[in-house]
Write a structure and sequence with these properties.
- By secondary structure, this protein is of the alpha/beta class.
- Helix 4 links the parallel strand 1 and strand 2.
- The longest helix is centred in the middle third of the chain and has 25 residues.
- The radius of gyration is 21 Å and the shape is globular.
- The relative contact order is 0.16.
């Protein structure tokens, strides 16, 4: 089945929905919020548009979807007051693939408008929000029509599984694994890396054509960092599936032939691709290392999540990855094994948490287009 058809988060508002299990993604946005605000301030000072046009790429659905819109409105409103100007109109484009739960987003808009009016007051100007379905590996908007692009925790998803992996049906290149691992043959690493480079170059070229002269973009992406021994959740799922193969609960043929359309690059790899493609000037690039357990917890001033027991923490970790991965895994391995798969994931992460603090890494890049 084509990647675009099955690559979406769990919809709705149920127990395993992305809407109720997206704290990891929320905290990813919060960790990079200071860079987004810096970008918006500089861009607004230089353009002062009548209508401020922003696109959030890979928005998904749920409580995080309108965080970029909310941050933008608050920052621009404060800037307008500082400059003694009337605030602009706003136009936000929320982009994701066709299977995204856009209906859930649209149902949340009345509450968003009400909240903005309460926080900003009568100066909150006209604000237009629409969905823009489609892949961001290609054009989405007319030439020179967008002021600011934002994308968080999405660019590790590739446009497709590398063709080299799909072509080896009789002798799978990445046998026994569903993603790139340390044990994968060099050809697998090469296939994933080259697919990522092609995709990111198409992404950058498309955004450059759509941005106004002098426009800007903030990208936040999950990366691997060898120095901090960051963990890849797909490897954990792959190990569990191997165990289920040995118990005859999953077909070995299916596991050997299956590869996920996801790749976590290094920071150096991302920088190299941006510089080679040449459409953007890197203003700031920052690597952020974070604690995996903390990233899936709803924190408060008293850090109450610390007092949750390991079972509750493991459950949160399992639900977080289930909300993201279940649709694509279900399409290949069937719905009947999903409960057991993620129950085992919970147990495995509890074991890993006991051994050491699991780390993740995010790279945030603030870039501008020449005027």
């Amino acid at each position: 089945m084509a990647t675009e058809q099955v690559l979406h988060m769990n919809g709705g508002t149920g127990e395993t929905s992305y809407a109720n299990n997206s704290t990891f993604q929320k905290n990813a946005i919060l960790r990079t919020k200071h860079i987004m605000e810096e970008c918006i301030i500089k861009l607004y000072r230089s353009t002062s548009p009548e209508c401020w046009k922003v696109a959030d790429l890979g928005c998904s659905s749920g409580p995080n979807t309108l965080m970029v819109a909310s941050t933008t409105v608050k920052v621009v409103d404060a800037m307008s007051q500082t400059l003694n100007q009337d605030p602009p109109m706003y136009q936000f484009f929320l982009n994701d693939l066709y299977g995204n739960d856009f209906n859930n987003i649209f149902k949340s808009l009345p509450d968003f408008y009400k909240r903005m009016e309460e926080e900003i007051g009568h100066k909150f100007g006209p604000c237009f929000i629409s969905g823009t379905p489609g892949t961001f590996y290609g054009r989405l908007f007319p030439n020179h029509s967008i002021h600011f692009f934002h994308s968080s925790s999405t660019l590790h998803w590739l446009s497709q599984i590398p063709k080299e992996l799909n072509s080896e049906v009789e002798k799978p290149m990445n046998k026994g694994a569903i993603c790139l691992t340390k044990a994968s043959p060099p050809g697998v690493h090469k296939a994933y890396s080259e697919q990522f480079q092609r995709d990111l170059k198409v992404f950058l070229r498309s955004r450059s054509e759509e941005l106004i002269p002098g426009g800007a973009m903030v990208l936040s992406m999950i990366i691997l960092d060898q120095n901090h021994n960051t963990i890849n959740g797909w490897e954990v799922i792959g190990a569990i599936l191997n165990n289920m193969v040995s118990e005859h609960k999953v077909e070995k043929r299916k596991l050997d032939s299956y590869n996920i359309s996801s790749y976590f690059p290094t920071a150096e790899e991302v920088r190299q691709v941006i510089e080679e493609e040449g459409s953007f000037n890197i203003q700031r690039m920052e690597k952020i290392i974070y604690d995996i357990v903390e990233s899936v917890m709803e924190t408060s001033n008293d850090d109450s999540f610390i007092h949750e027991d390991e079972d509750a923490i493991g459950e949160r970790q399992a639900r977080t990855i289930r909300a993201v991965s279940e649709p694509i895994l279900k399409a290949e391995f069937g719905e009947e094994i999903m409960d057991e798969l993620f129950t085992r994931f919970k147990s495995k992460t509890i074991q890993l948490n006991r051994v050491k603090k699991l780390k993740g890494a995010t790279l945030v890049a603030y870039m501008t287009k020449d005027t």
